[in-house]
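Before surveying the methods themselves, let us examine one representative protein, written as a sequence plus integers encoding its fold.
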Amino acid sequence: MSIEDHAGDVVAKSRFSMGLSGEEAAAAAGMALSEFAAFESSGQGNVNWAALSALLGLDASKLERIAKGWAPPHIDLTQWREIRQMTSCGPKFSVHCYLVWDEVSREAALFDTGLDAVPVLETLDSEGLTLKHVFITHSHYDHIEALPQIRGRFPKVRVHSGSKNAPPEQRIRSNDFIHLGSLRITNRDTPGHAEDGVTYVVGNWPEDAPNAALVGDAIFAGSIGGAREHAIMAKKKIKEQIFSLPDETLICPGHGPVTTVSLEKANNPFF
């Protein structure tokens, strides 16, 4: 699976968050404005990586690595036997949600819903699972669009959200933890891309598999979610709440391939 953002996307996200014009960035990149616009669109071009990265607060070597095709190596999810990534597609993009369950009780939790509930419902049926919880990483439409379908099938499912607009019984608290059979689910606040951004950490897996962090759009393999005026906070929260997890922690984003904390520390140009 290709990464969500190519080098031009990374540059554009950083440039927009800093309020810099295309002319300013093009000058640093050593490119004509038209060439720079093409680079932001395609991720390809003859770029002065050091000067452009210095202007944008990015790591030049990591950014160049992205431009040369870096992607995280394939991660075999069978180490986490009871986790499934499901993808639904809109006209212009795809989005992931994740189903997690306890192998003994067969109780399940869904992290975001994606655009279509059919893959989720089919997996629940095929695995003989009972859906107990839906955890929302943030309330952008592509992550919650299928919630009415899910609740229609499971009207008693518990919904958990960081949104201040959610009903009181759905709002998470920082010290909440929920047991799903033997699994333990905690949460960490990761606003920036969205005001209500939350990362959920699932631990206590069978056979000591590493933690899994369900991050929504806080961070992607090689990039972060668009944050515009909140980019400083977004990066701060990622460092504090995600990069503080053990290096082997699996990162499950809403778009692009899964990755790990150690891979993002080593390769994400924003850090």
